[in-house]
Design goal:
Length: 327
């Protein structure tokens, strides 16, 4: 977990972040979101309480004064007002507001249930904003092939291997950058550490093995900060999610798909969609490959197929209402 959280956050929030990261095994990205959501919430509370001047900008409010006594004063109404502020003033989407709601519910549940510092949970009866069910964005098979063909440059073997892993294994970006050399055995089985530090085993197919072997021939060996890290940056460190996103953006721009919202997570969607639609992988197997704890999360890919069937039927030239000859 990033140490700056422990320098900037009040102790009551530090404890919560430590619990979620170290005990619950939440990813660094999740802990970062918890911190930012709680910081925004308590900036709102501080301003509502009149503790700071009215004209101060929200982003300039210091939350170091937040302690258990202030937390005890938070009411259900305060939470509702905050969510209204997020919707009306910050223009947060329902997805973002749902995440903020989850962060608050986790924080107050921790204080009431886990450490018994609160006797009242102001979020207990709080419902999360309903999130629209959007179809996941993904690359077509043709665009996926164009993306792979676009790879070039000094790091072409590494970049190609990363893209092949994404497009074949459907892993999350945190899972990819976390891969160690020791996670891959001689049988081409790859150990993945997913959300909540849950482990699963993936089989590297022919394309993955070939890309991996080509990369390992040129992977730096000397002066590596983390010698077990599989994917190494130009600074001889383990690649970060930001570096992977930057690499992907470069190749998307090259094939004319920049600025369209594609990300490493969209490559995960691409892998899942191609496996389900083109590879005939059943939904239970797909759930295991993706590391979804809930089958309902995986079933979004069946909806993609359903939607394509609908669009296909609509595209039939005989699909329009025909005019009768006597009309």
């Amino acid at each position: 977990m990033k140490q700056e959280y422990f320098r900037e956050a009040p102790p009551i929030i530090q404890e919560f972040l430590g619990y979620m990261g170290n005990v619950k095994g939440r990813s660094e990205l999740s802990v970062d979101e918890y911190y930012r959501d709680l910081r925004t919430f308590f900036r709102f509370i501080i301003k509502e309480r009149g503790i700071v001047p009215v004209n101060i900008e929200m982003d300039d409010i210091d939350i170091s004064c937040v302690d258990i006594e202030m937390v005890k004063t938070v009411t259900f109404t305060d939470v509702l007002l905050f969510l209204n502020y997020c919707q009306n003033d910050r223009k947060n989407s329902s997805t973002t507001r749902a995440r903020k709601t989850s962060s608050l519910k986790n924080f107050f549940r921790y204080l009431t249930v886990k450490v018994n510092k609160l006797s009242y949970n102001p979020t207990e009866a709080l419902d999360s904003p309903k999130k629209p069910k959007a179809m996941p964005k993904y690359l077509t098979l043709e665009d996926s092939l164009k993306l792979l063909e676009a790879v070039e440059g000094v790091f072409k073997e590494r970049d190609y291997c990363i893209l092949i892993f994404f497009l074949n294994c459907g892993m999350r970006i945190s899972e990819l950058v976390g891969i160690n050399l020791s996670d891959i055995n001689s049988e081409h089985m790859l150990k993945i550490r997913g959300k909540g530090n849950k482990e699963r085993i993936l089989y590297l197919n022919e394309a993955c093995v070939d890309a991996l072997q080509n990369y390992l021939k040129v992977r730096p060996v000397d002066g590596i900060a983390d010698k077990d890290a599989l994917f190494i940056s130009r600074k001889n460190c383990r690649m970060t999610p930001k570096a992977v996103q930057h690499m992907l953006d470069k190749y998307l721009k090259k094939i004319g798909l920049d600025g369209q919202g594609y990300s490493p997570h969209k490559l995960r969607h691409t892998a899942a969609t191609l496996m389900y639609q083109k590879g005939g992988v059943d939904i239970r197997t797909l759930q295991a490959i993706l590391g979804h704890s809930n089958l309902g999360t995986t079933q979004i890919y069946t909806h993609i197929a359903d939607q394509q069937i609908i669009e296909g039927l609509k595209a039939n030239p005989l699909g329009k209402k025909l005019k009768k000859s006597d009309e």
